[in-house]
Amino acid sequence: MVKKSIKKNKQKLSKESKKINKINKKKVRQLLVKPHYNEEYMKNKEGDYFDEKHYNLVIKDDCDCYYYDENNDKKLLFKFRKKVIPEKLCNIGLENLKKAAQKTHDNRGASAGKIDMKKMPLYANDPKLLVGRNKFRVKEYISKYTGKVVKNSLGNISQSNIIGYYDKRDRNLGANAPMCRTTAFTSQQVEKWDKVIPLIIHIDRLFKKLIPKNHKIQLKQAQASKNFVIANTAYSTVTINYNWRTAMHKDDGDLKEGFGNLVILEEGKYDGGYLGFPRYKACIDVRHGDFLAMDVHEWHCNTKITPKTKDYTRLSMVSYLREKMIKCKDN
Fold this sequence. Notes:
By secondary structure, this protein is α+β, with helices and mostly antiparallel strands. It has helices spanning about 1-20, 40-45, 85-100, 185-190, 190-210, 210-225; strands at about 30, 55-60, 65-70, 75-80, 105, 130-135, 140, 150-155, 160-165, 180, 235-240, 260-265, 270, 275, 280-285, 290-295, 300, 305, 315-320. Strands 1, 3, 4, 5, 9, 10, 11, 12, 16 and 19 form a 10-stranded mixed sheet that branches. It has a 4-stranded mixed sheet with strand order 2-15-14-17, with no helix packed on it. The chain starts with a helix and ends in an 11-residue tail after the last strand.
């Protein structure tokens, strides 16, 4: 039975590979964008939100987008492809990740926006009790219940979670916790984790086909991580977000030579949620089953999400490699 199952999965993957091989044969729009703001201006806007009216370009079809950096070198900003994730894999992702994505966290930093008392955890939503506060995080707070100072970095609550592996200690385990760890979802919900592996593999194959040079670099380092890599992919980690609009930020901690790979899974109807690069005044309408390979080290954020049905789901998956994971290969 096991051999038959393996053979069947290989046949499915082979069919998917043929479909992926057709992607680059299509005529794709080539776009060159210019920066409208300098880095200092963008840094001052970190944690702000940018609406659709801010953008001159809204990309809704296949597109490769480039820009010239300060050294006049041509750089890739993103590659976008419509409807390249099979519906079956989309459904598997929704069925197995929706609940996990709804879990709230208070440690998303600038991507969760500037501190807003309405978005803070109930135990730390009194400005008089906050200590060591900056724009995005509170380093310490005074407990409403004990009156004592609690040293715990936190920010606005967001419906965002990580699956796979992570290169930061579990703060709940104290100073002796290992540097790298398996996330709670991957270790505790093994059946669901196993079911979404084919989806992550498919995303990885799209990455390889569209950006082979960066994929090769990322894959080599990911596979060297041994115990902290997702199957035979170039990823260690996937961030899953539920109906969450991110503020402007740059991703921190992932491989500089790599690319973030964004996929959206949907239920119901909504408008907005475009992935935008405010510096270039360009945004992309990434929808159900689409694939976006993007330079997450450029400033990016989402436009406002407006529900069109009472119940809707916008589940985003961002697959990437944590840079320090390779240091934990012997854990």
